[in-house]
Amino acid sequence: MERLFQEIALFGPAVAFNIYFAAASIPIGFIFAVFLALGKASPNPLMSRLSRGYIYAFRGSPLFIQFFMLYSLALSFNVSIWKPMGLSWFVLHPLFIGPLVLTLNTAAYTAEIFYGALRAVPRGEVEAARAYGMSRSQQFRRVIWPNLIRLAWPAYTNEVVFLFHATAIVYFALPVIGQQKDLMITAKELFERDYNAFLHFSVAALWFLAVSLVVFFLFGLVYRRLMRHMPAAPGLRFAPKWLR
Amino acid sequence: MNMAQAAAAVAEKWPVVAIRDLHKSFGKLEVLKGISFAASEGEVVSLIGSSGSGKSTMLRCINMLEVPDSGSVAIDGEEIKLHGAGPHRQIADEGQIRRIRSELGMVFQSFNLWAHLTILENVMEAPLIVQKRAHGEVREEALAMLAKVGISEKADAYPAQLSGGQQQRAAIARALCINPRVMLFDEPTSALDPELEVEVLRVIKVLADEGRTMILVTHDMEFARSVSDRVIFLHQGMIEEEGTPEQVFGATKSTRLKQFLNAASHE
Amino acid sequence: MNMAQAAAAVAEKWPVVAIRDLHKSFGKLEVLKGISFAASEGEVVSLIGSSGSGKSTMLRCINMLEVPDSGSVAIDGEEIKLHGAGPHRQIADEGQIRRIRSELGMVFQSFNLWAHLTILENVMEAPLIVQKRAHGEVREEALAMLAKVGISEKADAYPAQLSGGQQQRAAIARALCINPRVMLFDEPTSALDPELEVEVLRVIKVLADEGRTMILVTHDMEFARSVSDRVIFLHQGMIEEEGTPEQVFGATKSTRLKQFLNAASHE
Amino acid sequence: MSEDIAFWLSYLTNGKHLTWYASFQFTIFAALFGGTLAVVFGLIGATLKNSRFFPLRLIGTIYSSIVRGVPDVLFFLFFPLAFEQTVEWFIASQVCTPELIAAQSAAWPPCKEANWFLGTPEYLILASVSLGLVYGAFATNVIHGALRSVPKGQLEAARAYGMSASQLLWRVHIRQMWVYALPGLSNVWMLIIKATSLLSLLQIADIVLWADRLGAPNFLPAVGLVHEDWRWRYYLVLFLFYILVTLLSEKAFEAIMRRAGRGILSEVRG
Amino acid sequence: QETVRIATEGAYAPWNFLDDSGAPAGFEIDLGNAICAQAGLTCEWITNDWDSIIPNLLAGNYDVIMAGMSITDERLETIDFTQNYFPPDPSKFIAAAGSDIDPSALEGKRVGVQGGTIQAAYAEENLGATNTVVSFGTADQAMADLAAGNLDTILADGAYLEPVVTASGGAMEFVGEDVMIGDGVGAGVRKDEAELKATFNDALTALKADGTVDKLIAQWFEGRGPYFAE
Ligand SMILES: Nc1ncnc2c1ncn2[C@@H]1O[C@H](COP(=O)(O)OP(=O)(O)OP(=O)(O)O)[C@@H](O)[C@H]1O
Ligand SMILES: Nc1ncnc2c1ncn2[C@@H]1O[C@H](COP(=O)(O)OP(=O)(O)OP(=O)(O)O)[C@@H](O)[C@H]1O
Ligand SMILES: [Mg+2]
Ligand SMILES: [Mg+2]
């Protein structure tokens, strides 16, 4: 039992890396996703095609491959671009390129969620906004966005949890710098030492589970607040539909 | 009706809404086939006609929720600028249309209140955001409007917590609060149960008696007769008959209108 | 009605369905409060009563789609075995209930044809799967039944491709094809438009005239009068009045039944 | 020019590349076998979740929520190891004598005789089973929901005509369930396809491992063509491969949906 | 004939690599086959990631590791080694030509290593405080980053780096002092496989004595050896 607690504590610093990867990619991915979703819904055929293609490519291929491909791609530009600019250490650092790839990936998944929600925004409410003389940006800010985010929130919560899970493969694809090791690498290294799969992997799993639950709790609070205008706010359920 | 106001309105005869030769098609379906009419200050105009005759489309052309393929719309003497032709016709001046829209108070058949805002916030939204008026003043006026339509106590409730009739009255308050030159109603009671309908019709009646300029699409002939200064009967995208309620309902000339009125009374 | 058959049926008076003192509650709501009746060979019994009076529940207790809290049901003299008491009462013998159910042809209000099977497959399903009869024989009989209800040409269509009236006639063919001792109908026409209703009622009338034992829940008093040997009026879970159509509709005793019949004729 | 073509042709068909192409079979096998297992586990999980017996229902619920609460990679690494050790533990309890255990100097297994060799075929099967278990948890949810979407009346009619519980389940409930489950199962299938990219983590020389080896820079003529870092080109091929496969799968599922939905589809769509 | 499964990494030329036909090749493959021939065994080659090469040996998925693995005290805690078939050899720093790297006073540099190697442990311990140690899954991946300028230097086996420097034609060069770590390269076996270890040792002794090992070293590592000639 004591061994278990020691082990749990041992993983403490490692979980910080997983949380960092998720936390660094979620906000930018969110903003990017809004533009992608609007792009996909845009009447402009070029914009729509591009957004559609992007979303399809990143949802249709494995994140693992995306990591490998984008790292070696970035590496191949090192001599010509990053190095002269003095950005080499930064651009190719796992703590940068990791969140970058995760951002590109989650933006595609999130955009699909937002696109679905965008199409579900009640047309009448938007029409009312138009009829009262709101400009396009006012319509978006005051009517479309509040509806969209409410509709998308449950699915988005799942996406955030699964993005967090996706951080588990970052260091399988990228080099490890010094002692910067996440849950998976820590578990794997411990396992390679004493061959005790049950202990090390279970503890890593516990950490993932615990953080997932915290995310659900926090996002659930937000959801309840978002849905305060509904007579009986539906609860948030752990029911992922589209994942990586 | 307030006698002084009514007299003034009729004396002036200034056309607040003037529509000339509107045409509109959806794909191959020609819905409006050249419609012209004007509504003067303080006048209440009812549009009647069978389903699919183009009443809603007509009304939605006034504030350009649908852009007509040809013809013009002028509000208070100012013509709405459009460019292009046919189905590609577009609004030319976004600033102008926003300004004009904020003088047209539209009330929808299905209310279309903004679900995430309270009733009070719904009413205050357009004056604050579009007309950029001061918060304190708008709030006072909004509360007055809610009192007028009789739902003051629901100011802080959300739309989902109200009955249909209450929601429609809130929607009317929302339209009133932008201080519109003209109120536009598209079958404001047809999504309501008969009992709730009564509440809303009563509020509209009060507005008519106050001398507000209003254009309303309705399927309630009784109500059209009692509230309107002028009734327009649309048939297959054209004005088939037009006149005072007495002329239209009392001394019907068109056989089609006769048929229609007959059918309506048997509903 | 075929006179010879009818005479034989009345002479025998063998109770094909015998129900004794049925009680059934849903949670706190007591829906059936002690109901007993029997239907003899060849008899057509109609259950009438206002909405919520327990007619459907009654009918569903006969084939144990609802298990009664107390009381017994016997089909053709064989009592259905139950164990436990009150809300925990359960079917005791799965084999027995399957055998008995395959002798009761139930026709649902909403048809409940199996959507993934063609009409012919629907009709053949129970004889093949439950009664394990030979394929060729069943097919022949199924086609005959479809001809009888007048939808032979739809044999290979899926239910979704049929009108409501056709679906209900297919459902009747399905019930007939298991060669049931009794047919149970739960408001077989109330999900239908008036025109489609007529088709289905005609088919049921033919069955009644053939001397089939039938228990039917209906809200069509005209039809109940013309087709039934006996009419039972349920009120709040109890049998309020019972007799031949002449007795029930002609010489009504209960004031509640009078009220009900009055309301029904005004519908 | 033609020399160039000949050179590239022979480069792209050398043994190493041919092995790479051949390794696509592992990916395809794992996807198909894992997908089948996912449906099987999904059916079992959904049946458990639907069970009237509380402990079984609990097992079903725990299976579907715990497995989904943990990253697939983690389960992927853990399951084959854990399974191997469990098997070895079981064998050990049968064959190991105290002398043999005393003779054992390594930490695991308890004795040499209890050892179980895992080669590529075994790993491939274990990997597929892991895929099946992980995505079976998702399929459990999909199928559970689909079972509940079948209209009650359809089942009631079956009961009213005397079908037994198993006849009702197989002839009506599960038959109709597919139509409601297909969109969700299509999503699960896409997930499985994408998860096959992780096979190399289990020592299977799969398409990803070969892409890395083929693309890695080489300086020694003795080893093969001397080239710089070409990895991103090889990964681009995989990237496009996966997009193509998901695209084709989507089309295939649409076609299946149209077929399976005969008679029911209008209800689902409408 | 008994079958012995030998694991190698396949990404550490010229020790072991995958040749154009996709099969393992290199010094250790030739040597392993010679050992098996000598001892009358059948060899079966398995490629396995460096990371998990020891755990999978322990798990019994193969019997021997021949993957340029240095004999170290730490590894001896979990597995056994045969006698070395490559003598203790200095590890070296490699860098792009013309870069002013001074490994004796390395500071603020990015040092690449292959994770789980003796060089990785050495770099972490001696250079980790003042430099950035970057560990990769394979040595080839580290080379790719060095070639692309994302690393200042790599620390690896001299015998692995020498052909690279030669083949680079002056683009790469050795820098600074060599470091001695490890007790040479040997074949790893499970601790309970005393018999197999003895078989391998005997075969190696014989192959060293008849010059086969030296011959293979000379063939695969230009200018090295002879080490084991009497
Ligand atoms: N956005 C649209 N796209 C295509 N057709 C449309 C559209 N809006 C309306 N129509 C068609 O135009 C015709 C007239 O519609 P409109 O809504 O103006 O009729 P209405 O007189 O208001 O009828 P109702 O009393 O049923 O509301 C109808 O046939 C309708 O189907
Ligand atoms: N499964 C059930 N659970 C709870 N209450 C039920 C259930 N089935 C029926 N009830 C209730 O039992 C009462 C009688 O229902 P029943 O369907 O037998 O009435 P009915 O006479 O058939 O009425 P109708 O003419 O509307 O079909 C109703 O109040 C109904 O709400
Ligand atoms: Mg309309
Ligand atoms: Mg009923």
Automatic annotation (TrEMBL), chain A:
Any one Gene Ontology cellular component term annotated for this protein: plasma membrane
UniProt keyword annotations, A-Z: Cell inner membrane, Cell membrane, Membrane, Transmembrane, Transmembrane helix, Transport
PROSITE patterns the UniProt entry points to: ABC_TM1 (PS50928)
Highest taxon of the lineage: Bacteria
Record-level GO BP terms: amino acid transport; transmembrane transport
Coiled-coil regions, chain positions: none
Membrane topology term: Multi-pass membrane protein
Pfam family for this entry, one: BPD_transp_1
Subcellular location: Cell membrane
Residue ranges of every copy of the ABC transmembrane type-1 domain listed in the record: 15-219
Predominant localisation class: membrane
InterPro entries: ArtM/GltK/GlnP/TcyL/YhdX-like, MetI-like, MetI-like_sf
Transmembrane segments: 20-39, 60-81, 87-109, 160-178, 198-223
Keyword Amino-acid biosynthesis (UniProt): no
Family, similarity comment: Belongs to the binding-protein-dependent transport system permease family.
Name of the protein in question: ABC transporter permease subunit
From TrEMBL, chains B, C:
Domain ABC transporter span(s) in chain numbering: 17-261
PROSITE patterns: ABC_TRANSPORTER_1, ABC_TRANSPORTER_2
Presence of the UniProt keyword Nucleotide-binding in the record: yes
Localisation: Cell membrane
Pfam families, A to Z: ABC_tran (PF00005)
GO cellular component: plasma membrane
MF terms in GO: ABC-type amino acid transporter activity; ATP binding; ATP hydrolysis activity
Domain of life: Bacteria
Database matches in CDD domains: ABC_HisP_GlnQ
Record keywords: ATP-binding, Cell membrane, Membrane, Nucleotide-binding, Transport
InterPro entries: AAA+_ATPase, ABC_ATPase_HisP-typ, ABC_transporter-like_ATP-bd, ABC_transporter-like_CS, MetN_ABC_transporter-like, P-loop_NTPase
Bilayer topology: Peripheral membrane protein
Entry protein name: Amino acid ABC transporter ATP-binding protein
UniProtKB/TrEMBL annotation, chain D:
UniProt cross-references to InterPro entries, sorted A to Z: ABC_transp_permease_HisMQ, MetI-like, MetI-like_sf
UniProt-listed GO biological process terms: transmembrane transport
Subcellular location: Cell membrane
Ranges in coiled-coil conformation: none
Membrane topology: Multi-pass membrane protein
Alphabetized UniProt keyword annotations: Membrane, Transmembrane, Transmembrane helix, Transport
Entry's transmembrane regions: 20-46, 58-83, 123-143, 178-211, 231-249
Annotated ABC transmembrane type-1 domain residues: 24-253
Family assignment from sequence similarity: Belongs to the binding-protein-dependent transport system permease family.
Protein name per the record: ABC transporter permease subunit
Source organism (scientific name): Devosia ginsengisoli
Lineage, opening ranks: Bacteria, Pseudomonadati, Pseudomonadota, Alphaproteobacteria, Hyphomicrobiales
